[in-house]
Design a protein that fits this description.
heterodimer; A: alpha+beta; MetI-like fold; two-stranded antiparallel sheet; 59% helix; 10% strand; disordered N terminus; B: mainly alpha; 16 helices; 2 strands
Chain lengths: 399, 328
């Protein structure tokens, strides 16, 4: 043991010293911080508590971020999809997902590239086989390749895409369909219709549900009976046949946008009943509360009692309900379009893309046609996880 | 009990009228009548159709009358003659098509509901008794699948997996050689080889909610003191669960039994299209696509009426079982 090692300790790195100082300062103030936190918790508004509780639900948080990503992709579809959803390539009918290579045939690293390839019908199996020549050209896959000018979101002029090849050989991330169209581009474009149909539909059924449920609960009496019977009627009629019959009534010559709104309307006409029941139940239980009585005595109008005193009391439940209603709308649209009575070509939705996967024999040859299904299921599952998290957060005072 | 039944029946009648009006609206919705397309077709084929003839055709179908009159005419024919109008796509009376197709839809739906309950109730109990076990988590996962995967996709997926692994293509109720054959043991076996898929798909679709609700309510009950008391007195665990808490926990499910019908019928419509079943589903779809509105409206009406009656019967059964409902 020599003196040199024990007497003067080596000076700590500045970063560590800073941290120690900070910690010391924190604990020397006698738990001030902790007390502050507790006070913050007491004085936090309901919404702050809900946000905090939702944030603790890891699965819901991750789902939320992923879902936001979905929507961003849908909004920026023109930029993210490397090709136009209608762009055909006769050489690539039923081309499988492109194999993306990173190393040159001789072993050196050259970055991502795809080989020149084409598909041809196999005369024996009648299946389209991928053909790659022995010394096929290598086509690098690059970020931001130049393309024909287009308008992003219909307003911003652009002439680059997120990724793609610079040559004529396309890169098929998820394969190609029966006309040689890039499935990935089609899915990205379809997500616009499929993801936003939920919002439109929920908006309409939200207005209907809150208005009718509110009137039913608040006015009561005969009006209540009539509205309740109507709801029971709508609920006892099988939804899907009614959807089908209503969707059939959409004239064939309507444009894509018109059909889209008609489908949204059809979906929401049946969807409002659940919400109306929730709203009615909440209002029935709340309208006898003292504060409502107080408002009434102060001669507040029915309208302001409903909008200022009753509805804020169950906004959180409404939000939960909406989160759970959106995936139902998405599934409804997918089902209708899959059956061929929803979104019509040339417009695409996840459901209409799945039409190609209808035939199991075709599917067994070209499995990648099932990719849109993965997106549908993912979106629905994500919404359900968020709904779970919100349900827990909706009542932040529990436990 | 009789009073309860009568009161329920009293509600039923306005329901049926409302359903018939909705179906009539469905028929009237597409712009232009089918006489228009019929006449157009005749003209395209080179026939000369005068305005007078067109008027005659219209009169024949009662299209020259006002809407309420047309409705009364349509309803009257259905009620008194069982005549739902005729399908111009199939060129046959709608009633005949309904007779042919609806029974298989009913049988398939009821079988699916029976299986759903037979499976969902024991699994719900298992989930609650063994909370947070591997079973519980597995069932939660299956429930999520049932919720997130639309029926047609599930049918397609299972069909695909079966075809890939065994080369067996599930298609319709019977394989081609048995379709016209008389009933025999081999035909029944063939039916079983095909019919399990639609039943499985419909069962998974309906199971999720039942299992979840039963699990939640049963868990509430299991924590109550009377269960502890029974356990302390030495009642075997299984008997304990089945005899008291289950009875209470299953009640909210029984009361929504009727609501299951519309969902199952709807699911059946879509699944039968994918699996090519000779039920009403594919017919309704085709009628919708070709705007064969008498057929589509007729199907919507008959399915709705049947589900409403189904709900009525399940209500009666419930009231028989639970005196509290009778007193409502």
């Amino acid at each position: 043991m020599s003196d040199t090692t024990t007497s003067a300790p080596a000076p700590r790195p500045k970063k560590v010293q800073d941290r120690i100082d900070r910690l010391r300062a924190q604990y020397s103030t006698g738990g001030d911080r902790r007390r502050q936190r507790a006070e913050q918790l007491y004085s936090a508004s309901q919404w702050q508590l809900m946000r905090a509780k939702f944030g603790k639900h890891k699965l819901a948080m991750v789902s939320l971020y992923l879902l936001i990503l979905f929507y961003v992709v849908a909004i920026l579809a023109d930029f993210i999809a490397p090709y136009d959803p209608q762009e055909r390539s006769r050489q690539h009918i039923f081309a499988p997902p492109s194999a993306i290579h990173f190393f040159a045939p001789d072993g050196g690293f050259v970055g991502p590239y795809v080989f020149d390839s084409r598909t041809r019908v196999n005369p024996k199996t009648f299946k389209y086989d991928l053909i790659v020549a022995d010394n096929a050209d290598m086509n690098p896959v690059v970020l931001f390749p130049k393309t024909d000018p287009y308008l992003l979101m219909g307003v911003i002029p652009m002439s680059v895409k997120l990724f793609g090849t610079t040559s004529r050989q396309p890169v098929f991330l998820l394969g190609a369909d029966n006309l040689g169209r890039d499935l990935f581009s089609r899915i990205v474009h379809a997500s616009r219709v499929s993801l936003f149909v939920g919002f439109g539909g929920v908006l309409i059924s939200f207005v209907l549900g809150v208005a009718l449920g509110g009137i039913s609960g608040y006015v009561g009496g005969k009006v209540d009976v009539i509205i309740q019977r109507t709801i029971e009627l709508v609920m006892s009629v099988p939804q899907i046949p009614l959807w089908m019959a209503l969707a059939a009534a959409i004239p064939a010559e309507w444009t894509g946008i018109q059909t889209y709104f008609a489908i949204t309307l059809v979906l929401s006409l049946v969807g409002w009943t659940g919400l109306a029941r929730v709203v009615r139940g909440r209002i029935l239980s709340m309208r006898e509360e003292d504060y409502v009585m107080a408002a009434r005595i102060s001669s507040a109008s029915s309208w302001s009692i409903i909008t200022r005193h009753l509805i804020p009391g169950f906004t959180s439940y409404l939000i939960v309900h909406i989160t759970i209603a959106i995936p139902f709308m998405i599934l409804g649209e997918t089902t209708l379009s899959f059956l061929g009575i929803g979104i019509r070509a040339p417009d695409v939705s996840w459901g209409s893309l799945l039409q190609q996967a209808q035939d199991v024999v075709v599917l067994s040859n070209y499995v990648w046609l099932l990719w849109p299904a993965a997106f549908v299921v993912a979106a629905v599952v994500l919404f359900n996880f968020i709904g779970d998290g919100l349900r827990d957060a909706a009542d932040p005072y529990a436990k | 009990m009789l009073q309860f039944a009568l009161r329920r029946l009293g509600i039923l009648i306005p329901f049926l009228i409302a359903i018939s009006i909705v179906s009539f609206i469905v028929i009237q919705l597409p712009p232009g009548s089918y006489v228009d397309s019929y006449v157009n077709n005749l003209r395209l084929q080179g026939n000369v159709v005068s305005a007078e003839q067109e008027g005659n055709i219209r009169a024949m179908y009662g299209l020259d009358k006002s809407m309420p009159e047309q409705y009364a005419l349509w309803m009257g024919k259905i009620v008194f003659a069982g005549d739902f109008g005729s399908s111009f796509r199939y060129n046959r009376p709608v009633a005949a098509i309904l007779m042919e197709r609806v029974p298989s839809t009913i049988i398939l739906s009821l079988t699916a509901i029976a299986f759903t309950w037979l499976l969902a109730v024991p699994l719900g109990i298992l989930s609650a008794v063994k909370q947070y076990s591997v079973w519980d988590h597995t069932l939660t996962l299956i429930g999520l699948v049932g919720l997130a995967v639309p029926g047609f996709l599930l049918a397609l997926g299972i069909m695909f997996v079966v075809y890939q692994n065994t080369g067996w293509l599930v298609n319709g109720f019977f394989s081609p050689p048995f379709r016209e054959a008389p009933w025999s043991l081999a035909k029944v076996l063939d039916l079983l080889k095909n019919v399990w898929l639609p039943i499985l798909v419909l069962t998974i679709g309906g199971m999720a909610t039942i299992t979840r609700v039963l699990r939640a309510t049963l868990l509430d009950e299991l924590n109550k003191q009377y269960v502890t008391t029974a356990r302390a007195k030495g009642v075997p665990e299984m008997t304990n669960v089945l005899r008291y808490p289950l009875r209470i926990a299953i009640n909210p499910l029984l009361s929504t039994l009727g609501w299951m019908l519309p969902a199952v019928v709807g699911g059946e419509i879509v699944v039968s299209k994918v699996l090519n079943l000779p039920t009403i589903g594919p017919v309704l779809l085709e009628a919708s696509i070709t705007q064969d509105m008498y057929l589509a409206g007729g199907i919507v009406m008959i399915l709705s009426v049947l589900t409403v009656f189904g709900t009525f019967i399940s209500d009666l059964l419930l009231a028989l079982n639970d005196p509290r409902i009778r007193m409502e």
